[in-house]
Amino acid sequence: MVEKACKICHMLTEKKECPVCKTKELTENWQGIAIIFNPEESDVAKELNFKLSGKYAIKV
User: In 1-60, where does DSSP find H-type helix?
Assistant: First the structure.
């Protein structure tokens, strides 16, 4: 199954709904991956405004 990125929060998912913000606004058109383990201490997470641990698309 193809991973889709949420257009709102950029979380990657294989489901039909974003597990974070519960929207169905998903797209297969995304680029780059950031895997965030500790968002509180991650400079990348802060820069990209990712608040939860998980796998995110850099560009949606």
Answer: 43-48
